[in-house]
Amino acid sequence: MTHIYYTFIHEKRHSQLLKKFSMDFPENYQNKIKNFRRWQDAQLSILGIYLLKYGLKRIEKKFHPNELKFNSNSKPYLEAANLEFNISHSGNIVVCAISDQFEIGIDIEILKDIDIADFKGQMTENEWNKVIYANDVTSSFFDYWTQKEAVLKAHGSGIIDFLQSFEIIDKGTTLNKSYFFIKEIPVDDRYKCHLAFKDKIDTKISGPKYINSLRLI
Q1: Which pick of 35, 75, 158, 202 has the fewest CB atoms within 10 Å?
Q2: What are the distances in angstroms from CA 116 to CA 127, 137, 141, 152, 190?
Q3: pTM value?
Q4: 102, 198 in Cβ contact below 8 A?
Q5: 208 with 111: CB under 8 angstroms?
Q6: Where are any strands of DSSP class E within 67-141?
Q7: What is the pLDDT of residues 109-130, one digit of tens each?
Q8: Which domains, and CATH codes, for the chain?
Q9: Is the Cβ–Cβ distance between 32 and 74 less than 8 Å?
Q10: Residue 107 in 3-state DSSP?
């Protein structure tokens, strides 16, 4: 089963959240949060961890901050837990996916006006043509972008230079001889969000479920 949770940041709760975080997590995590210049970025990072903690509790698994590690590509993982998770945030929202089945990756992006031409080199020719000839170019671009980023996260590479090396076809793709299925996650109309998972099309997905940030602190 794959569980998906999300929440929104709130400036009025930031002081309360920082106080709670300082009590729950060791100094090295606190220092990481202090490096953020904007309160929004700090809170998105904090809430991502609290969503993970909340989700693990729901499936009766304990969360120990010291077990949170990062691989050589900066992908987080839990050292002692037999499960996969992935966190993504954009704008004012953070989303967390947890699976006890296989590798997963999730990516969310707020829909905003950008210069699409800057990203042409990160898409295949077919993907690019579908984007620029779509009725809604912005929506189509972020649709493809979140799919490709989710695949990279599920694969564990996290290297943006790989984006042009694989092509999204009918919500699926092959990367380094591994096949990944992709599913759109309807979180919010202002965002695009996709989940990528490896090898199994019959995965059961619970959510996305909104969690009020007050329940996390």
Answers
A1: 202
A2: 12, 8, 8, 20, 18
A3: 0.91
A4: yes
A5: no
A6: 68-70, 76-78, 84-90, 93-99, 104-110
A7: 999 999 999 999 888 999 999 9
A8: 2-216 (3.90.470.20)
A9: no
A10: strand
